[in-house]
Design goal:
This protein is an alpha/beta fold. The protein folds into 2 domains: 182 residues, Alpha-Beta Barrel (TIM Barrel); 48 residues, no CATH class. The chain contains 11 helices and 9 strands. Bound molecules: iron/sulfur cluster (SF4) (2 copies).
């Protein structure tokens, strides 16, 4: 199924230290509402079956996002909203937001939670938001963003103590998080395949990867184009037919790094987006991989 991360606005009401937003990117890029409606119609024409409203904090624009969710529902598109939970200060306020989203057909709410988010948003908000979802029958989960350090044990325990549904998610080494010290990790020698859902930014640039993809600015490897020059269908097809992207999806970053000459013991020290950055955000390395995309890499499958 085609899915897309929809960046309605880059505006956020807090400034997390780990955010992938870079400080030199304007904070208040926003799509025109009528344009967002037209894009959703075009997404439906291109058989996009899932839209995740993300980027800055989407629920700053609750009324508009609720209307866009309703529009998606009319087209049979599954919707998710990714939020920091600022709107859930009390159970009553949480209900008023959740009921509105539910009435407009929201499929799922994803609340972000971490020791960085919670410097600005009381953790009680996350509890209020989750309990409101449970009470009002809205599917939800919590993204517990972590660097896997011991400092996060108590942060995680709060979720367990309150029986909340959560999934740990590694911080992405991009934007403000680039200032964090690189903490080597040691994991299994895993494939690190990515499904790579495209991300549409408020300025209508589309990227092939919705996580760190817009930050590979040395090579612009994941930049697919802009909707002012191309249709959604063209950009989606570009994403789906690019040979290197398909190797990322099917072979995985780890085997590609090994092919490119990285030692196995080095590979296991990187999180996958960091490894991806090493492979595709350097012009020299990217040039080699592009040359090999149809030859050497094709025979590098087990
Ligand atoms: S991580 Fe999310 S909540 Fe925090 S500043 Fe970035 S967009 Fe806002
Ligand atoms: S590993 Fe690469 S393709 Fe996968 S999410 Fe990270 S930046 Fe995107």
């Amino acid at each position: 199924m085609r899915k897309i991360a929809f960046g309605y606005s880059t505006r956020c009401n807090i400034q997390c230290e780990h955010c992938v937003a870079a400080d030199d990117i304007p904070e208040n890029l926003k799509m025109e509402f009528h344009q967002a409606r037209e894009i959703i119609a075009e997404l439906a024409d291109s058989q996009v079956g899932g839209v995740s409203f993300t980027a800055g904090e989407p629920l700053i624009y609750l009324d508009e996002i609720a209307e866009l969710v309703a529009l998606c529902q009319g087209y049979g598109i599954y919707t998710r909203v990714v939020t920091n939970g600022f709107w859930a200060k009390t159970p009553e306020l949480a209900d008023s937001c959740i009921v509105k989203l539910k009435e407009n057909g929201l499929s799922q709410l994803r609340m972000s939670y971490s020791r960085w988010h919670q410097k600005n948003i009381p953790r009680q908000n996350i509890l209020n938001g989750a309990q409101s979802c449970e009470k009002n029958g809205v599917d939800y989960f919590i993204s517990f963003v972590t660097d896997f350090s011991e400092q996060d044990d108590a942060v995680e325990q709060y979720l367990r103590d309150n029986s909340l549904k959560f999934f740990p998610e590694p911080i992405i080494s991009a934007g403000r998080a680039l200032s964090f010290a690189h903490l080597p990790i040691h994991t299994d020698y895993q494939a690190n395949c990515c499904s790579m859902n495209p991300y549409l930014a408020p300025n209508l640039d589309m990227y092939a990867c919705c996580d760190a993809g817009s930050h590979f600015t040395n090579t612009n490897f994941f930049h697919l184009g802009n909707l002012k020059d191309s249709s959604i269908e063209q950009l989606l097809q570009k994403s789906e037919t690019n040979r290197l992207y398909n190797h990322i999806r099917n072979m995985g970053i780890t085997a590609m790094a090994s092919f490119a000459g990285f030692k196995a013991r080095e590979i296991i020290q990187y999180r996958k987006c960091e490894l991806c950055d090493k492979l595709f955000n350097s012009a020299d390395m990217l040039g080699i991989l592009q040359q090999e995309a149809q030859s050497g890499l094709n025979s590098w499958y087990r």
